[in-house]
Design goal:
Blueprint lengths: L3 H5 L5 H4 L3 H7 L5 H33 L4 H50 L2 H5 L3 H43 L1 H8 L2 H38 L1 H6 L3 H27 L1 H25 L5 H42 L21 E11 L2 E11 L4 E5 L6 H7 L8 E6 L2 E2 L5 H6 L1 E4 L8 E2 H5 L8 H10 L3 H5 L8 E2 L8 H15 L3 E5 L7 H14 L4 E5 L11 E6 L2 E6 L1 H7 L2 H10 L9
Parallel strand pairs: 3-10, 3-11, 6-9, 9-10
Antiparallel strand pairs: 1-2, 1-4, 4-5, 7-8, 11-12
Length: 598
């Protein structure tokens, strides 16, 4: 697990290289120009009302209270009430409008993040935990929610209130205004000091909370393994370490930002003392009235109130900018290469697969496949066998172009898979994995996942084909039975049968089975093999199997070892060669090696 210092010193990703995150966040507001103008008008009205109040109070003291004019005082108080009422209405309006705009921006960001995630290449997910990505979509976006829904309102109100107060102070008495403004240089230095440290601290908090979420997601998914291997205490301790790192990062961030407001309070107290001392002297010498001094003291208090509010927004902004960087890191990721403008569709596919000198590497300089070449005709079954990590699944993933080859060519019916429309290519291919994934929804919706227009009759026919209808029909709600996340209410074998039915309903020309029958009992497997015999007539199938009994009738068996094809041929031919395949077969069925003639 990375330490706090290593996270804080991590190199900045491309979101920051292309410009400041703050500028990019502000650019999100461009589509709402008219509403922003309305917000600005409301802010100005609210600021003017706030700035006008103390002036009326000072006028009431000098002209009416000290002279005993009750009528004048009453009218002035009514006017003051009206000014503050207008300010209240304007403030409420700006809060409502900013909240509406902020939520629209957040909804747009979530949609764009989700859309980008679904269009990213699989290699992006190979190197990033799902929990961290979920944290970016939820936690990091939530930090922006706090800024856009509340912080911007406070920031804009504080800014224009400050401008109005400064103007009013200069009009009332420029000498007292300069005395108050004497603390501004110290205020700016204080802001710069805290800004640099807070930005780094909040970036660390966003990284550590992502680490916590990723670890939590992993431990929940793997809770069965944790209990089976007595790893619960060790996993709890590891989570405590992650959680402690996040706690320490947040404590450091809060320690930095919490010192900012008291520093502003000290400067505000100093400014008040200067105004009282110098203003009192001016009153005593007759250069200033009591009413103006009173109004000025109110302005001094209001002068630092926007700065204090800005300090609170500042804390939100630092956290939001750190979260924004992580969000833009996703949005800046390159999606799968788009299809060329005039790329042809693979309308009709016979199912001929050809690999020509194919090489592939997940990471540069570390090839996983080297010089893979083979050809299978339509309707044939090709089996990939070999030790774990040899590259079998990688070969299968190159066919639907989940990854692009780094060398050589993969062809379907003579077409380079990189030169046909990706959507039309994948429509002709269905994949069944060893660990099937079922979505939240009904059984019927999961079977029809690849064909949204499928009728109930077609869904049931697909289930019957793979012998899944009986167990589905026995459920209380049948095909309308709701499934939890991952289909956890079903057994492993039942989930696998549903994934088979999903593939059958898709009616592919090429079917890829990646250890698809390893979690099904022998009787069910026999039924599926019989059903697949009918299904695969005229179709091409690519079977990855460790259970060699399932691929005896394959037209071509490729034995993959260390990223290369070590042997090829039929089951009988490979046994006769007495090579790697024969050794794997004997080990699996515990058959003795043939005697070597003396």
């Amino acid at each position: 697990m990375r330490g706090i210092e290593s996270i804080a010193n991590a190199s900045q990703e491309r979101a920051e290289e292309k410009g400041t995150t703050a500028r990019r966040l502000l650019s999100e507001l461009r589509p709402y120009g008219r509403r922003l103008v309305l917000i600005l008008v409301l802010v100005v009205v609210g600021a003017a009302a706030q700035a006008g109040g103390p002036w009326l109070i000072g006028r009431a003291i000098d002209l009416y209270i000290l002279r005993g004019d009750i009528n004048g005082l009453a009218w002035t108080m009514l006017l003051l009430l009206g000014v503050y009422l207008v300010g209240t209405v304007a403030t409420r309006g700006q809060i409502q409008q900013v909240g509406s705009v902020g939520q629209s921006v957040l909804a747009s960001l979530r949609e764009r993040i989700f859309e980008r995630l679904l269009h990213l290449p699989l290699r992006y997910f190979d190197r990033r935990p799902a929990g961290d990505l979920m944290s970016r979509v939820t936690n990091d976006v939530d930090t922006l929610n706090q800024l856009l829904s509340q912080g911007i309102t406070q920031l804009l109100g504080s800014l224009f209130s400050l401008i109005g107060i400064v103007i009013a102070m200069l009009i009332l008495d420029w000498r007292l205004a300069l005395a108050c403004f004497a603390v501004i240089p110290a205020m700016l230095l204080t802001n710069v000091y805290f800004a640099r440290r807070a930005r780094r601290a909040f970036r660390t908090t966003r990284e550590t909370v992502g680490d916590v979420t990723a670890g939590l997601q992993e431990e929940i998914v793997g809770v069965r393994e944790a209990q089976a291997f007595n790893r619960t205490e060790a996993n709890i301790e590891r989570f405590r370490e992650r959680n402690a790192a996040n706690r320490t990062a947040n404590v450091q961030a809060v320690a930095i930002t919490s010192a900012f407001a008291p520093a502003i309070d000290v400067l505000g107290t100093l400014a008040t003392a200067l105004v009282i001392g110098y203003g009192g002297y001016l009153v005593v010498t007759g250069s200033l009235t009591v009413g103006l001094l009173t109004a000025f003291l109110i302005y001094v208090q209001q002068f630092f109130r926007p700065i204090q509010l800005a300090s609170q927004v500042y804390t939100q902004a630092q956290s939001a900018l750190a979260g924004g960087e992580r969000i833009y890191n996703i949005l800046d990721e390159e999606t799968e290469p788009p299809d060329p403008p005039d790329v042809p569709k693979l309308d009709r596919a016979e199912g001929r697969i050809e690999f020509e000198n194919v090489s592939f590497a997940y990471n540069p300089g570390r090839p996983v496949l080297e010089e893979i070449s083979f050809r299978t005709e339509p309707g044939q079954t090709i089996a990939l066998v070999g030790p774990t990590g040899a590259g079998k699944t990688t070969i299968a993933n190159l066919i639907p172009r989940f990854y692009d080859v780094t060398g050589g060519t993969v062809r379907i019916d003579g077409h380079d898979v990189r030169e046909v429309e990706r959507r039309s290519l994948r429509k002709k291919i269905a994949t069944v994995l060893q660990e099937p994934f079922l979505f939240s929804g009904t059984i019927a919706e999961n079977i029809g996942y690849g064909r949204m227009d499928a009728t109930r009759e077609e869904i049931e026919a697909a289930a019957r084909t793979v012998s899944a209808h009986d167990f589905i029909d026995a459920l209380s709600d049948g095909y309308d039975t709701p499934l939890g996340e991952g289909g956890g209410t079903l057994s492993q074998g039942q989930r696998q049968l549903l994934s088979f039915a999903r593939a059958v309903l898709a009616d592919p020309r090429i079917l890829i089975l990646d250890e698809a029958t390893s979690n099904i009992d022998t009787r069910t497997e026999a039924l599926i093999q019989e059903a697949l015999g009918t299904l695969l007539q005229g179709r091409t199938s690519v079977v990855i199997a460790h259970r060699l009994s399932t691929i005896r009738n394959a037209d071509l068996i490729l034995v993959v070892e260390a990223g290369r094809i070590a042997e090829r041929g039929s089951h009988a031919d490979l046994l006769e060669k007495n090579g790697l395949y024969a050794d794997l077969y004997r080990r699996q069925f515990r058959e003795p090696a043939p005697a070597t003639p003396s």
